[in-house]
Design brief:
alpha+beta; 37 strands; about 30% strand; elongated
Length: about 525
């Protein structure tokens, strides 16, 4: 709503004429609802829908692993805009799968609609999604040639004012939203498209139409003029919004009338976690200089950094037998025999995504899949007595056990203990199948079947603040529960309280502790995880 003033004067012929001069011309002043008192009668009418809307937008859809801001998206590649393109690209890949378009290169266009949008580390809500993608656009894709895609990018690069070559830019607000002769306003942020799926540099020392340099595919291959490319964009842009070339007349190859914001929300709910490492690629740059493509130097060996593990093969030595880095700082670490070869190795969890390796090393995971929800508690065990450990998740006092390393519906489901209990998994009776035990303060309740009901064994051990670990510490085929206090391990080889059978100081106070059979000898021994 605006208050608009239009000055009108009568001509000598008696006709009304709008006055439009430098000193006198039409004006418009926005009327902001926040500047006016609320009307109780109107509030009463809309309250039910207003409350439902607030409840909807407050829903948490995913966890962000770090804060992602759009504040600088108009002049540098940012993860939060790449998130939009990741969602758009995934949807079109899904639609193209199994069709004659499956092998088309997919390039996604996304605009920095809001410089104030942000995904803060932790909870991401529906409101956060709406603040990032503020329009009710639907997703489309058209087929362009490589030459047409370059034209599209050149048109987008109009967004920047031209500067002298090699100008050092200190205030991007003076460079973006370029105002051209004959226009009444500068190019708005929503009219500036950022592309994912190709690499390019924008040289704003050059005239409009000649600014795009080093346009290549991600593998470095130049984009050819006759290449066939799928450009993913919104319906506003495809229908001519902001005047981009070629897209109005280009063949439409995807149009399922799906709202982009809804796709973003659905993607977040399904993934459970928004991690820039999964989608953020710095594929474009802008400056007042020409980029020079030079061969990349041979990488130098990197020092052992990040999530570093120190593992020992016995209960007598304070030194480690294995050292390596795996995963990232902040990952949840899991220990298990994933391939059933008798050796425990590591896995990490990010949200509801799991990355498991079959050897004690860094590098790519051997098993990748999603299971459960981001907030579930995860347990590792061999639930059916076959070779290899798998996963379970716990929600409240409900356990969902899976007998394969995959997502989907659980194979076993049951309730046990209380929501506030600490849960552990182990083969308590030596039958080769793992079950659940819970700890309540210093009392352990052990059950030998995957079921609810009364515990088979109950005993007290240790102090309330101790860390409890489950494992076979003497190689007899039966798991028991031991404790860690600081960096002191208290090993208990039976289900009883009292004095520990073995003690060992290992690692440093503050290390994350674990146990596993690292050398396949049937005995679980200590390990620590340290971020360095």
């Amino acid at each position: 709503l605006s208050n608009v003033t239009i000055p009108v004067e009568m001509t000598d012929g008696g006709e009304p004429e709008v006055v439009w001069t430098e000193s006198k011309k039409p004006t418009a002043v926005a009327v902001n609802a926040a500047d006016y008192a609320q009307d109780p009668a109107i509030e009463g009418v809309i309250a039910p829908w207003h409350d439902q809307t607030l409840a909807w937008v407050s829903q948490v859809v995913a966890q962000a692993t770090e804060t992602m801001s759009a504040a600088t998206s108009v002049h540098e590649d940012t993860a939060i805009v790449d998130f939009i393109s990741r969602v758009q690209t995934d949807e079109v890949k899904r639609a193209f799968a199994g069709t004659d378009r499956e092998d088309l290169p997919i390039v996604s266009a996304a605009a920095p609609f809001s410089r104030t949008a942000v995904f803060n580390e932790g909870d991401v809500t529906v409101a956060d999604m709406a603040a990032l993608y503020i329009y009710d656009n639907t997703l489309m894709a058209v087929e362009l040639t490589g030459a047409q895609l370059r034209d599209y990018l050149e048109y987008s690069a109009r967004y920047y004012a031209q500067l002298p070559e090699d100008t050092v830019i200190t205030d991007w607000d003076e460079v973006t939203n370029a105002l051209y002769p004959g226009e009444t306003r500068g190019i708005p942020d929503y009219a500036y498209d950022i592309l994912s799926g190709v690499d390019y540099h924008i040289n704003i020392s050059l005239p409009v139409g000649e600014r795009i340099e080093n346009l290549t595919y991600p593998d470095g291959t130049p984009v050819g003029d006759t290449d066939r490319i799928a450009l993913v964009l919104n319906n506003y842009r495809q229908s001519g919004g902001s005047g981009y070339p070629h897209v109005v007349d280009a063949p439409i190859i995807y149009n399922e009338q799906k709202a982009i914001r809804d796709l973003m929300i659905d993607w977040a709910i399904e993934s459970g976690v928004i991690d820039p490492a999964d989608f953020f690629v710095k594929n474009w740059t802008v400056s007042a200089s020409t980029t020079v493509v030079e061969p990349e130097p041979e990488p130098e060996p990197e020092p052992l950094r990040g999530n570093v593990f120190f593992l020992s093969d016995d209960w007598t030595s304070t030194t480690h037998s294995h050292t390596f880095a795996y995963g990232r700082a902040g990952d949840e670490v899991l220990v298990g025999d994933w391939d059933g070869d008798g050796y425990d190795t590591l896995g990490v969890r990010r949200g509801n995504a799991f990355y498991l390796t079959d050897t004690l090393r860094g590098g790519a995971a051997d098993h990748e899949f999603r299971f459960g929800r981001a907030h579930d508690e995860v347990l590792v065990g061999n639930w059916d007595g076959t070779a290899g450990d798998t996963l379970a998740v716990r929600r409240g006092n409900t356990y969902y056990l899976m007998n394969d390393l995959k997502g989907g519906a659980a194979d076993i489901e049951f309730n046990y203990g209380r929501t506030s209990d600490e849960a552990l998994a182990g083969d308590w009776d030596g039958d080769r199948s793992d079950t659940i035990a819970v700890r309540r303060d210093t009392t352990f309740y052990v059950v030998n079947e995957p079921r609810g009901g009364n515990a088979d064994v109950v005993y007290n051990f240790g102090r309330s603040g101790d860390r409890a670990l489950a494992g076979d510490f003497d190689g007899d085929g039966t798991d028991t529960i031991s404790l860690v206090r600081g960096n002191m391990f208290y090993i208990n080889n039976s289900h009883r309280g009292g004095v520990a059978d073995t003690t060992l100081t290992f690692g440093r106070i503050g290390d994350a502790v674990m146990v596993g059979d690292w050398n396949g000898d049937g005995v679980d021994t200590p390990g620590v995880n340290r971020v360095v």
